[in-house]
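Long-time lurker. I teach an intro course on protein structure, and each term I like to show students one example going from raw sequence to a predicted 3D structure in token notation. This year I'd like something fresh instead of my usual example. Would anyone be willing to generate the tokens for the chain below so I can use it in lecture? Attribution to the forum is fine with me.
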Amino acid sequence: MEDLPYKVFADFFEQRQPGLGILAGLVLRKLEEGHLCLDPTLEEEKLSPGILEPGPYLTHDSKEVKPFILYKGNVYFQRYFKYETNIVQKISALVEEEQHVRQKRKELLYQHFSQEDVEQMLPALLNNFCIITGGPGTGKTTLIGKVLQTLYTIDSNLKVALAAPTGKAAARMNESLSELKNQFPQIPAASTIHRLLGAIQGSVFFKHHADHLLEYDMVVIDESSMIDGALMAKLLEAIDPTKRIVFLGDKDQLASVEAGSVFGDLCKAAFTQGSVLEDHITHLTKSQRFKKEEGIGLFSRSVLEGNTGCIKQFADNPDPALSIDTQYNQTAFEDYVKDYLQYIKEADTAKALEKLNRVKVLCAVREGPYGVYHTNRRIEEYLEKQNGNNDVYHSLHPRYGFYHNQPVMVTANRYDLGLFNGDVGLIRYEYPPEHDKELPPLYAWFPGPDGKLLKVPPGFLTGYETVFAMTINKSQGSESDRILVLLPDRKDIPLLSRELLYTAVTRAKKQVLVQGTVEVLEETIRKKISRVSGLEARLQNKDHAVWEP
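-- Reply from a regular --
Happy to contribute to a lecture. Here you go:
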């Protein structure tokens, strides 16, 4: 426990019970690493004998409130044990309640449609809880669109809510369902989960909870792999167990930034025969976007399988859709970065935001020569050199603070402004400057939920960062035509994993370039992330495990 935060925390408990400090510090470290709990069998040599026995600060009784709880072999913070327990109990309630209505729903469904018409949609049409998972381009949103179309045909007054973890993901959900909305105008605009639940500024609580449920017949959540344990517990708490909730997502993507790999755990449980969630999942495997035997489709599949042979294959024989550069070639870097000139030269801000999103530079890390901070500076310098004879409005002049044509990402929720962590906007003058006159004021422009631009004084952005380059984590929930992936030049980076690389390359709709050394790529593809939780095990057995408190 050398790191100061862990040491201070560990010392607090060590002073109260000798030997407990190490356990406390390990649980905290695991939480910071994304695990919901600690598997003590992996740390036996560090723990004091008998430290897992019940005591003043640790309990084995799920009804007893103490800082730590040992449950089914794992050690939790009490709060995170409650989150996991709430997830299990709320899913159990949904599954139990659906038993009373499945037959009636089926009879009503077959009055309007044949079994063949709705076969693939049955888990979402009959169940209160459903998962739809698949890789990019497999038709997750298309399928949920058909589900909504089917349900609206039966009941045009159905109340539906659409949401996603970030503003970007919600915007993409709206875009994907735009044609269906023309046919069924009652389909609402997608929002963030925080907005759906009624986030309260400065509080971890929401307006909607167990005593104030959401009033919807169906809630549909996209990009579910991004949802952490705490948010999932609070979302499910606000769902009426007699209603429906459907989760869409890619089980192979990176898990949430905060603790938990909830969506992945739920998918594993659903694939298990005899589990609570058996027959509650639809797994889509055929991609309409990528061919399995070439380009992005082949590379992403190889990455998930841990096949490092794909590195040499794509480095020696670049595919039109995917290539690997093991030398960090500057010309190849600039070939992607130059696409940013399109938005800089676009006078219309709404169109400029659209063009900004056509290319993304994704970094695995923040620090170092290939991290976000240095890469942003490289891109700023390159774009400034390309200004040529362009006027001030159609050029880029980076400086400290805010500047014209600066792309920014919100890093702190501002519920009062309607802005959420991950929202991307553009800093621009309010109008084109006139010659020899004072420059107009700068504003931050963001896509609004109603399709209009949201105009915010830059000084109101309490948390933001420049995003010519962003972390791979921050890119989740978004897509771009072209993606440049920058891996660090060192392989001893804990963040590197096959899930990270898979998530990065599958953000691309058309073309992707990966820059990184052979050694780093090999290490990245070999390393698979596994987060510790009890969620999958507690959902495995429908006869008893799920019903325990």
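Some talking points for your students: Residues 543-547 have pLDDT under 50 and may be disordered. Residues 295-526 form a domain with the Rossmann fold fold (CATH 3.40.50.300).
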